[in-house]
Amino acid sequence: MIYLDYAATTPLDPEVRAAMEGVLEEYGNPSSIHQLGRRARSLLEEGRERLARALGCKPRELVLTSGGSEADALALYGVALARGRGHLVSTAVEHSAVLQTLKNLERLGFEVTLLWPDRQGLIYPEQVAEALRPETILVSVMTVNNELGTLYPVRQIAEVCRARGVLLHTDAVQALGTVPCQVETLGADLISLAAHKFYGPKGVGALYVRKGVELFPIIPGKQEQGYRGGTENLPAVYGQGLAAEKAVARLAEESRRLLALRGRLEARLLALPGVVLNGHPTLRSPKHVNVTVQEADGEGLLLNLDLLGVAVSSGSACSSGSLEPSHVLLAIGRSKEEAKASVRFSLGRYTTEAEVDQAAQVFAEAVGRSRVYI
């Protein structure tokens, strides 16, 4: 099987796995004051410090979570509930973890404005500036779109928000190890991360919280400075720190390699009749290629790719056994039929030129099998 679904999740780095296996022997509770607890606390803080160095922030500015979705929820609920009322601004192409949280906040009486992208998936700082109100408390714009790979001008949006005294959250789950996402580079007040997107373990993530930002905890407890209760997942936190350190260290080299592979794959895909690119041609993550196959049966296309040995994702999400069109692709102007007949290829650390070439050949065959002829 050729794995080209790195945007969904990444394999666990072997060095990270080995380090985690060693930490599994440490069964002490990091909150305990005896020797076993102190040893566990030391390893926990080592993992946090490594992640902090990768992000260029202070360890105390990181709240450890169960993943990116919880980090998003803590950022949005945390700011909103700490303020009690107000207006939030986000985009129509955010991850469902953000969009669903915003819907829930609307039910609690908060006002939400969603910004719509252009046909290439871009959101502009000017749109954010126009949407801000005196009562706006938070803007949430992702760093890299998880479906299209579109890169958003987070730094410029941060400047707009800072000038108006509004907090900025960015979901950077797709960013670390793929594009620069240090705290000073992004300029955001809150940054969400998930370890399994950068060759770390599943079930762990983090929220960067700039000093001075007030959050209401959604899981009460004494851990994580009171922002997130519950005994920490020590092996996962340790693995996350090491994975982040490694991903950032090889960022420049890996980005160049992925960009070359992306260009190679993209050229072969777009040479096929009726295959068109989704997203921006250049302002895009080096690992993402999302295409729509015109006049194709979307479900058949995905099934054929799987049967032919290529693991990818569609521009759709399976819900209750039915194929639902991607809200991201609908937002950039694709029809429901086009959205269902879309495929996201995402490259990663172990992708080779041979795999890219073979995947392109398989895709051509799958497209031929899936064409709808009337």
Automatic annotation (TrEMBL):
What does the similarity note say?
Belongs to the class-V pyridoxal-phosphate-dependent aminotransferase family. NifS/IscS subfamily.
Pfam families in the cross-refs: Aminotran_5
Highest taxon listed in the record's lineage: Bacteria
Q: What is this protein called?
A: Cysteine desulfurase IscS
Question: What's a Gene Ontology MF term here?
Answer: cysteine desulfurase activity
Q: Which cofactor does it need?
A: pyridoxal 5'-phosphate
Instruction: Please give the SUPFAM superfamilies that the UniProt record associates with this protein.
Output: PLP-dependent transferases (SSF53383)
Domain Aminotransferase class V, which positions?
2-358
Name the NCBIfam families for this protein. Answer: PRK02948.1
Q: Which InterPro entries match?
A: Aminotrans_V_dom, Cysteine_dSase, PyrdxlP-dep_Trfase, PyrdxlP-dep_Trfase_major, PyrdxlP-dep_Trfase_small
Q: What species is given as this protein's source?
A: Meiothermus taiwanensis
Coiled-coil annotation reads: none
Reactions catalysed, as given in the entry: (sulfur carrier)-H + L-cysteine = (sulfur carrier)-SH + L-alanine
Enzyme nomenclature, EC number: 2.8.1.7
Keyword annotations for this protein? Iron, Iron-sulfur, Metal-binding, Pyridoxal phosphate, Transferase
